[in-house]
Specification:
The protein has six helices and seven strands; from the N terminus they run βααβββαβααββα. It has 177 residues and is of the alpha/beta class. It is globular and about 55 Å long. The structure holds iron/sulfur cluster. The site of iron/sulfur cluster has 13 residues, from α1 and α4.
């Protein structure tokens, strides 16, 4: 059986969901026999490839760069998975949503700066008005709640998807745990 192409993506998240992915420990070796990790913060791939079978998306869509990236990924992925509460609900990144983008920039780059307070105009991707869950901007096939989801849940979901089944997660996950 040929290996499936797996990708993982880190948008506006804390990387905790990727840490949970790594917590699969020795099960990663078993998975390595079934998938090729073709794009991820964990590997040195610069371009998101075409025809990816499964992509796990960590984090909310918060910046213009996130939006561009997740749309491109959706177009190149068969099964797109929202991994973790930030992807599923916007969670922590959405805490800035009651405030304007300019006031967020002021807080980060001026009020808390001790040297040369200034808001960067390049290098840093421009924030969207709101941090949004992934399904607000592209279609999502599978949701894995949790902050972060446990390694057991990620392993279960991945192995089900690799068997061609939709994982039944309602009794295995809950928000915030
Ligand atoms: S869901 Fe939790 S662990 Fe995952 S990126 Fe968001 S804050 Fe971090």
């Amino acid at each position: 059986m040929s290996k499936k192409k797996l990708a993982t993506v880190w948008l506006d998240g804390c990387s905790g969901c990727h840490m949970s992915f790594l917590d699969m420990d020795e099960r990663l070796i078993e998975l390595a026999g079934k998938v090729d990790l073709v794009y991820s913060p964990l590997v040195d791939a610069k371009e998101f490839p075409s025809d990816v079978d499964i992509t796990l998306v960590e984090g909310a869509v918060s910046s213009e760069e996130d939006l561009h990236k997740v749309r491109l990924i959706r177009g190149r992925t068969k099964v797109l998975v929202s991994l973790g509460d930030c992807a599923v609900t916007a969670n922590v990144p959405a805490m800035r949503n009651p405030f304007t983008v300019e006031s967020v920039y002021d807080r980060a780059y001026r009020e808390n700066a001790t040297l040369e307070p200034q808001t960067p105009t390049d290098v840093i991707p421009r924030l969207l008005r709101y941090a949004r869950p992934v399904h607000d901007v592209v279609s999502v096939d599978v949701y894995i709640p949790g902050c972060p989801p446990s390694a057991d849940v990620i392993y279960y979901a991945l192995t089900e998807l690799l068997e061609g089944r939709t994982p039944e997660l309602s009794s295995k996950t809950r928000f915030g745990a």
